[in-house]
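Quick one:
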Amino acid sequence: MARPLSWADQLKQRVISMNFVELVDFLEHRMTMQHIYQPLLVRSLVDAGGSATIRQLAVAFLDQDESQIVFYEKKIKEMPLKVLRRHGVVASRGNLVELTTGRLSFEEKAQIRMICDRKLQEYILKRGLGIWDYRMLETEPVPGNLRNRVLAESGGRCALCGATNKDRPLDVDHIKPRSKGGKNEYTNLQVLCSRCNRAKGNKEDTDYREMAQDVAVPGCPFCYESIKDRIVEEFDSVCAIPDGFPVTAGHHLVITKRHTPDWFAMTQAERNDADSLLRMLKNRLADEDRSITGFNIGMNAGESAGQTVFHVHIHLIPRRDGDTKNPRGGVRGVIPGMMNY
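Output:
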């Protein structure tokens, strides 16, 4: 006589189904989310015609993972692009990369693909899955209760730029990256917004929670509360204001929202944000004023270098033909008489 199925076994064998209206109701009203995975899986199945293998779904997830795309963009720039460009195999202009061979025939393309596939297989057979070890260390997600604790204690704000979930998604970040052995432990977790987390990457292990106390310093003329009414542009951890004593028309300052004394004390994420904001400002100023033909970018670090406000601020100074008799030497002019060389 067959043994009766346990409740758990019955549940496993039970097939629950729903119609279109019920699915819409679930998605709109009953689905609770801690990440994008549920709607992404449903959408991926719809795109695949209703059914797909786990691997097909994983590939669809990867296509939507912006952090992975950014990771491989950086990986391409760091190694294969540099090497192949040095050997004359490829050329690049901005973000466009192309083979230097020019147009290839159908047969030539087939031969190149065949050689590349063979090289890939030879390397994988020789090294095995070890070639992806840096992506396969600890892949378990942060447990829900631990994630909720870290989010709650953060006050719902990015530890670096102060963004909330109304501004962009908040991530629970590993201070010591998992690719370096970082664990899913409370002491190794902090809250970063999606942009700051991508900017941090897996090479930095800065504990931004320790910097949360440095958001503002009483009396600092460049701390966020002191300048918020003058801000003309913001980009995550930095903002821009017109210089109070402009050298030329359009002179702006890019300033960190966190109080930090100089450029050398900035985090990599802050430097990345400052670089992006400088580019945005440069483009806007050049579009609005066609007389601008160049820019000086610089900052003072230390009293002996001329710094008077000890909250990092980067000068973006528009230049125009004829605004000085001899512009040769540019920023070398910080020491009088040393511009010409």
